[in-house]
Automatic annotation (TrEMBL), chain A:
Pfam families: DctM. This is C4-dicarboxylate ABC transporter permease. It is found in: Cell inner membrane. Keywords: Cell inner membrane, Cell membrane, Membrane, Transmembrane, Transmembrane helix. The keyword Thylakoid does not apply. GO terms for molecular function: transmembrane transporter activity. It comes from Desulfobacter hydrogenophilus. It comes from the Bacteria. GO terms for cellular component: plasma membrane.
Automatic annotation (TrEMBL), chain C:
Its main location: membrane. The chain crosses the membrane at residues 7-31, 43-66, 87-109, 129-152. GO terms for molecular function: transmembrane transporter activity. It comes from Desulfobacter hydrogenophilus. It comes from the Bacteria. One of its GO terms (cellular component) is plasma membrane. This is TRAP transporter small permease.
């Protein structure tokens, strides 16, 4: 069997097995294992399984996931997130979809602290989903906004994807980080517009509430106190060099714990509940990542990503067309593979081609992150969607069907595509800040 | 026709990865296309810490990784990474290969060794404060792992054991005061953007040894002609890797200076003082491995006489 | 069977408590390291300790997460199927899962043994890594037990469904 055929069969089998309701993570691991064994040897496949599970569980980069989830859980069980959303509601409740807009903005703010998108999605889902439900928001809009908003964390610095891109292509990581700020804000605005339009089209998606007086609004601001203290502590700590973004997760969780204990809002029972819920959610997220990694190793060994990339580099087309083809390939690749893995595999091959065409390396890096962001929410392998699905099952009293989340994603996906087109048409949105600061 | 998989953690743009790739091409050429090697850079097949194990277990057929990632697994070869006072990558590479030829440590019995290479002197780089004397270093937080961490401890600094991946951010924000790394990394990991002083502490310079390993079964399956061709190529490439480390160090130095970095030389007297302060690291090594039945002193002495 | 059930439930609860403790320690160690670094006394091996506890957190949660259906599955199609077929499909996928994870557990024990023989230790603290892999292997073994428990449960439901 040719490797490429094996890869295609593997993808098909994976999609079919998804339909049996076997956990997505286990399907990816199983198909990846069998595929890898076919391409190499069963012994190698067995070793691959055990090593990758250990490696993912022990990865220091991924330790932020349980800790950020814990932070969200503590915020939830101590009522901090409830007060945060109540305040938000006093200000934005009268606007249709206002809370979803606030959630997207909160994702961007959280992205300034957290570099991992599943961690952002899981934390924001824990905090945001029950609250949006409380104000009768449609499940599709609520889940869609946290799953997509979670991805903004990758564009907003710090960003794991940008660090890897910077090392792969020998670009300044500082410049890449700075370059990400305006695109992140652009995406936030586009997502807010997506919420607005969704609510225009469907009156029940994000129902408008009563209007509050300014006196009531200012009173509600006191409910924001703790959140602001924690946010200032974490962002300030990173900014002043007290700790790294990886450590910020622990500091944040600890901060929430201390504040809620001082305010006597967290009982021992609430604390234990937070820990237990965090265990379950983290286990789910980490297994998803492990599955995606194992399946990715199988696709790597079929060499499909390499073949596609070298095919593109041989294309003789207008520069804009080549860029379009590359973006489309990243879109497809992001559908089937862990987006970060796909970036590592293919950037080295695409990068020289794009440079040859005369594009800016920093600009291309941000474009890559934008398409990666699409990858985390597109089916069938869309980590953020599964993460939010899992969290929703946990924090809501009812089940949100998967297709509902995918439906909720659609407006945001369109917003991302528009964002990419804008960034291609106006590269200065990306390049303005780095040029200002580095020359 | 034999197809082999080669896993490397170096990103494809890194010269060490490009050399590995050209090694693959050369093997294909000199075996008349009978041995074809699929190359997987940037940890796409196995991550650095799992690469050696991956070769032994057959996830990949060939792999390049730093020995330091499998701490404890290579008690004899570990000695190469000690602060012997390296001055170049060519020197460190020659030492590493000579050491292997001389001792043929049994710790490598599970794989076939193709060759070793090692980077140039690992030096201390700081952010805000130049280091002129040992006293200046006291209590500074220096990012360093494994052997270099031990050296920092011995020199009186406070080692912060974080990976290279996190190094840039930590230095940029001042989470640490400095970092211990080869000159090359100023450009390769962009660290030159965030450090401003480089101390020429050659007398306590460490290195990191990288090995290129092959799965034993796969090696045995090759014909004697193929084996000797690969061995010959590996001999040639070991030298190239060493030279490449020195070239990278030059580029790293140029980058460091271009960003306004200051190089602080060390007097003969000061560097003797540092050497003395780092001596316990060597002694501890000898003591530690003797418990495992390894004559650490013989290894250390051999390396010193081959510097 | 009842006794085995009770033992497995007890172990699952114990593992969760251990996981909760590990999670708390992860947080506290990092905070202590950050604070210590501020006063020039960082905890040298903090990264490794946090990594070790991270393994314990995820591993300890394996049995419980599976039992409560915490893993994400696609129910777009299965939702439309009659109960009996759904249970049969469940039985099939649970059996596949059992095979997969029994193999993984067994491989993890082999990995732990390999690591012990190779004498691999962590980079900074020089802590023997095979203990960590062993923790993971033991958790995976109990996880396999939990899957078996769920299979028995599914079979029972199927029986009830056909007789009643
Ligand atoms: Na971020
Ligand atoms: Na996807």
């Amino acid at each position: 069997m040719s490797p490429v055929l094996a890869g295609i069969i593997g993808i098909a089998v994976m999609i079919i097995m998804f339909m049996t309701q076997m956990p997505v993570a286990f399907v990816m691991a199983l198909v990846g294992f069998i595929g890898f064994s076919t391409m190499t040897s069963p012994d190698a496949g067995l070793v691959l399984l055990s090593r990758n599970i250990y490696e993912t569980f022990a990865s220091y980069d991924l330790t932020t996931i349980p800790l950020f989830i814990l932070m969200g859980q503590l915020g939830f069980n101590s009522g901090i997130s409830k007060r945060l959303y109540s305040a938000g509601y006093k200000f934005l409740g009268s606007v249709r979809g206002g809370l979803a807009m606030a959630t997207v903005t909160a994702c961007t703010a959280f992205g300034a602290v957290c570099g991992s998108s599943p961690a952002t999605a899981a934390t924001m889902a824990t905090v945001g989903l029950p609250e949006m439900k409380r104000f009768n928001y449609d499940d599709a809009l609520a889940t869609g906004s946290v799953a997509s908003g979670g991805g903004i964390g990758m564009i907003m610095p710090p960003s794991v994807v940008l660090i890897i891109y910077g090392i792969l292509t020998e670009q300044s990581i500082g410049q890449l980080f700075v370059a990400g700020i305006f695109p992140a804000l652009l995406v936030t605005m586009l997502f807010i517009s997506a919420v607005y339009i969704t609510c225009l089209l469907d009156k029940n998606a994000g129902p408008a509430g009563e209007k509050f007086s300014w006196a009531e609004r200012f009173k509600a601001l006191f409910g924001l106190g703790e959140t602001l203290i924690i946010f200032a502590l974490v962002v300030g700590g990173i900014f002043y060099g007290l700790f790294t973004p990886t450590e910020a997760a622990s500091v944040g969780a600890f901060g929430v714990l201390v504040i809620s204990v001082i305010q006597r809002r967290l009982t021992w029972k609430g604390f234990v509940k937070s820990l237990m819920e965090t265990l379950t959610t983290s286990c789910m997220v980490l297994m998803l990542i492990t599955g995606a990694v194992i399946f990715g190793k199988f696709l790597a060994v079929t060499r499909i990503p390499f073949e596609i990339a070298s095919w593109v580099s041989g294309l003789n087309m207008a520069p804009a067309m080549v860029i379009a083809v590359i973006i489309f390939i990243y879109f497809l690749g992001g559908c089937f593979m862990d987006a970060l893995a796909f970036v590592t595999l293919t950037v080295p091959i695409f990068f020289p081609v794009v440079m040859e065409l005369g594009y800016d390396p920093i600009w291309f890096g941000i474009i890559i992150v934008m398409v990666t962001e699409m990858g985390v929410i597109t089916p069938p392998v869309g980590i953020n969607v599964y993460v939010v699905y899992g969290v929703a099952k946990n924090v809501l009293s009812h089940n949100v069907p998967l297709e509902k989340i995918f439906k909720g994603i659609t407006p945001f996906l369109i917003a991302l595509i528009i964002g990419i087109i804008i960034l291609i048409a106006f590269p200065c949105i990306i390049l303005f800040l780095p040029h200002l600061m580095y020359s | 026709k034999t197809t082999l998989r080669y896993a490397n953690f170096f990103p494809p743009t890194h010269i060490q990865s490009q050399l590995a790739e050209s090694w693959c091409k050369e093997v294909e050429k000199r075996t008349n296309g009978d041995v074809v090697i699929q190359y997987f850079p940037a940890s796409t097949l196995t991550k650095a810490p799992q690469t050696y194990d991956g070769v032994v277990q057959g996830i990949t057929d060939i792999g390049m990784t730093a020995l330091g990632y499998s701490r404890g697994r290579f008690p004899v070869a570990e000695a190469i990474d000690l602060p012997m006072g390296y001055t170049s990558g060519v020197q460190a590479t020659a030492v590493a290969n000579a050491m292997y030829e001389k001792f043929k440590p049994e710790e490598f019995n599970e794989s076939h060794i193709l060759f070793f290479h090692a980077h140039g002197p690992g030096l201390i780089h700081t952010r805000d404060k130049g280091i002129n004397t040992l006293e200046d270093l006291k209590g500074l937080k220096i990012r360093s792992t494994g052997t270099s961490g031990l050296v920092m401890d011995a020199l009186g600094a406070s080692p912060v054991g974080k990976s290279m991946r996190e190094c840039y951010q930590m230095l940029q924000k001042g989470v640490v005061d400095g970092s211990c790394h080869p000159i090359e990394s100023n450009k390769g990991w962009k660290l030159g953007e965030v450090v401003h002083y480089m101390i020429q502490n050659f007398s306590t310079a460490y290195t990191t040894t990288f090995g290129v390993f092959m799965n034993k079964n796969q090696w045995d399956k090759l014909t004697p002609e193929q084996q000797s061709a690969i061995t010959q190529i590996s001999l040639e490439w070991a030298v190239k890797h060493g030279e490449a480390w020195d070239e990278s160090d030059k580029a790293g130095m140029a980058f460091f200076k271009e960003k306004g970095g200051v190089v602080i030389p060390q007097s003969e007297e000061e560097s003797e003082k540092w050497r003395g302060a780092a001596r316990p690291v060597l002694d501890n090594y000898i003591k530690k491995v003797s418990e495992k039945g390894v004559d650490g002193k013989a290894v250390v002495d051999f390396i010193k006489s081959n510097m | 069977m009842k006794l085995l059930d009770r033992i497995l439930n007890l172990v699952s609860d114990l593992l969760r408590s251990a996981g909760a403790l590990a999670l708390t320690l992860m947080m506290l160690i990092t905070v202590a390291d950050v604070a210590g670094r501020f006063f020039k006394h960082p905890i040298f091996g903090s990264v490794e300790l946090v990594g070790f506890f991270a393994v314990a957190v995820a591993a300890a949660a394996l049995p419980h997460t599976y039992k409560v259906g915490g893993h994400v599955g696609v129910e777009i199609i299965t939702r439309l199927l009659p109960r009996k077929i759904r249970l049969l499909l469940d039985l099939f996928t649970r059996t596949l899962t059992l095979i997969l994870f029994s193999v993984v557990a067994w491989q993890m024990f082999v990995y732990a043994k390999d690591m012990q023989q190779a004498g691999e230790v962590s980079m900074n603290l020089e802590f023997p890594l095979h203990y960590i892999v062993l923790v993971l292997a033991v958790s995976l073994a109990f996880f396999s037990g939990t899957i078996l428990q769920q299979i028995v449960d599914t079979v029972n439901q199927l029986r009830k469904g056909t007789t009643g």
